[in-house]
Amino acid sequence: MADPSHSPLTTHHSLPTTDHFRDQGLYRVRRHIGSAQGVHIRYRGRDFLNFAANDYLNLADDPRLVRAARRAARRYGTGAGASPLVVGYLPPLRKLERDLARWEGTEATLVTSSGFAANLAVISALADRDGDVFSDALNHASLIDGCRLSRAAVHVYRHGDANHLEDLLRREANKSHRRLIVTDTVFSMDGDLAPLPELFDLAQRYDCLLVIDEAHATGVLGAGGRGVTELLLGAKDQTGGAELLIKVGTLSKALGSQGGFVCGSRQLIDYLVNTARPYIFSTALAPPAAAAARRAVAIVAEEPERRQHLLQLADRLRGGLSAAGFPETKSRCQIVPVMVGEATQALKLSTSLERFGLLVPAIRPPSVPDGTSRLRISLSAGHTEDDVDRLVTALRRV
Ligand SMILES: Cc1ncc(COP(=O)(O)O)c(C=O)c1O
Q: How much distance in Å is there from the Cα of 51 to the middle of ligand 1?
């Protein structure tokens, strides 16, 4: 009789082969980077101009963050050693939560070990199998997985389409005890913005919580760098809407460190501390990462010129691409896609740009829908106008 432990389905050989992915242009590798993150990075022994990172404010290797991390490591060590609910809630983390709350103008914040974990934590703690979640069709994987984890009924509305969302809300009215609308505020592969004022209005009228992920907006958009909420909602961000608005951010992109955070009332944060499994059953953020993020929050407040320069570069890039005949996109921020279509073609273009010393990643399914592969240009406050012009010239040529 066959030994079930040797069934083909239990061996690695039953997994799809490398060729399976390669044939479709979907094979992924990890680039071996040989330097710190920055506008100039080392790859395959050569220097590249980097348009691939989410280090939007050029802080990931900033000496002030490095110093803060070093000081925290000397005093509190390199690892938190336990869940925050056991003995992992150390001073750098507590101070970071306090500073984030002050900066965001919210009663309290909760810092998680990644932005991904923050989204899993919030959605799975707030929605359950009796609930309904209304989710934008292009939401990030962490929001989608949060919905799955919650086991709520998920209703996907067409990307950025508040009318479609209202149809779905009307159809599902009064069926469940808790309803959530969840959306990215900046969509990471297109650089477009969610229609937040409309979503906020719908959340009020249909008695929903509005969970928004500011991962690509924190530190970049809004006069104070507080994201699309600040840009499009203004005072509602802080006052009347505070009870229905739950804002998630990441420390891993513009803030140059690692981790995620949730803003809300003290009651909400207490509830998450007591119920959110991705938070409770995971080691607290490491002290050096917390200290570096805290320094970054101060820099975002003190140096608005970083985000202003970044957004001016984005305007320049969009203008240059348009003048060169590339189709318009919906980008409104530092993320600018160049639409290609087929995955193999996008990959070929990305490789051609490497010959010009430029790193621009090809984004392919499943990160984007089939047939919409693209180059994703992501700008940094450390880029210069010349860097942007060099990229446009190279794109023209390839
Ligand atoms: C929209 C969005 N949310 C959340 C995350 C996850 O954040 P982190 O990298 O901190 O886990 C990402 C990361 O790519 C993202 O693009």
A: 17
